[in-house]
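Lesson 9: reading folded outputs for more than one chain in a single document. The general rule is that every protein is listed as its sequence immediately followed by its structure tokens, and records are never interleaved. Here is the first one.
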Amino acid sequence: MEEIHFDISRKVYSQEEFDKEYRYERPAKTWRSFLEGHISKFNFWEQSKIWFPFLDWIPKYRANCLIPDILAGFTVAIMNVPQGMFALAALMVGNVVNREIPHETIANLTEDTPLADRPDVQLVVTLTFLVGCVMVVMCLLQIHVFASYLSDSLISGFTTAAGIHVLLSQIPLLLGLTGIKERSGFLKVYYTLYDIFSHISRTNLAVLVLSGICVIALYIGKNYMNPEIKKRLCSLPVPLELITVVITTVLSQFCHFESKYNMVIVDKIETG
């Protein structure tokens, strides 16, 4: 049987070479065609749900989640906002105020100075407004898509490093150490550890005992009490953090932690 051989060869083209040889010209795009294409695909309701996500999940919200969400809201409002998000924002804004406004200007202000006339308040209000404008623009431009390019390893490393810094910042408070200066810059973690161990002999035992009791109580409550309560009594989680804050606040008031045990307390919160 005679064998048949096929020899097939084809020239390899790049897109530019292909267009040139076959005289293909791409249609010119005009602003009108661009806008017409986007407007025809635009869905106001779907876009509104992207801008305001609550429009998407509110119709699907289950009534049995209302009470747990209310408890979570109270816990976040009383604990996480003052100690976490508010503290972080105050730290960043405070640095701007210290850098832009001379210390002498703030020192010369009196209690009778109206808030609207205080330069630090004016700066904070202006900065807040500008940040809000930037965030609105970022929302309209859908800048959040750039987050999809961040790898899981990067996010995990960042959150772990942030957790280490937060832990180190809390250790002096848990031990009641005073006189430890705030470190910054390169090798901050190691310098902070050095400061902690060099001042370890000044540990306030009352603060250490109270911190230990709170940590142990929260651990036991979260890992042992809450599951049993949800299993036997009700499905609502017990706001242990909120209860701990209330109890320690009452004890601090009536047991005079500040005067008797030299504990640092929040004390009076100034207006503004």
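And here is the second record, again sequence then tokens.
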Amino acid sequence: TALLLAFVMPLSIIWLIGLLRYRIEGHDEVQSLTTLPIIADIPMASDDVKTSAGIVVHENKNTQMDEIFRSLRTNIKFLLKEQQKKILFTSSISGEGKTFCAANLAMSFALLGQRVVLCGLDIRKPALGRLFGIADRNLGITTLLTKEKVTLEDVQKQIVKSGVNDNLHLLLSGPIPPNPSELLARQTFQQVISLLEQQYDYVIFDTAPVGLVTDTLQIAEHADCCVLVCRADYTPKSSFGLLNQLADEGKLPNASIAINGIDMSRRKYGYYYGYGVYGKYGRYGNYGKYGNYGHYGMYADSHYGLKDDNSIKK
């Protein structure tokens, strides 16, 4: 009996711990929760590499974070058909990093010489203005949506420079209205989007969490692809029930997943240790694809590696 208990008890504890882990941990777990394609695994960026607006993508740099966002950019271009250019970012709850991902993807496109406009469409809880240090809260799309008809000149008056790259412009949320859903349902919104498409190579929507309000589903009707951002050790596993349902119903067209906030410092513990996806020999470990000796690592034979790369929090 004692021998049986000694065998059963550890297994029971492991099973119980697994049961209590209600947040996603990484790539393999997300893959088990959804059939949507995972197009990016984004580690936590170090504070050393972040500049204004939380930008971690820089010109003429080959850090691991630069390469990861280049990879995201490439994957999104594969998802888009010819002439498609409208990319929507959302998440299930607040705090998963959708604005961070949207801003850095926009910067990555801008560094290619593409004209990009990043639209702050989380109208109830605006973040872009604060992120990019723009004090004027009266500028933005809600000012346009109150009109019956908008012109290109009207739109251009509301657009501001990002301050981080000449090719990256911003259309902020504007004053917070009492009726966001009604404004987004107006024909004026389609007019604004059409005018932006005429002027820019890529139009990126930073929207509200889809699990909290319906605004994002209205905006998604105008998007060519949707990137659903989740965050390691933060996003509840239960969120994927809603995300899968909305994608299956076509309410989030051409949807894919980006996993944000992977904590590389945890690779020595449990799931992240040894031969796992984040372990020493795993995809993100010391010898993995993104690790110290991997394809994009500090000592990689590849030309992507940098000896002084400190872009990822370790």
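What the second record shows: The chain has a mean pLDDT of 83.
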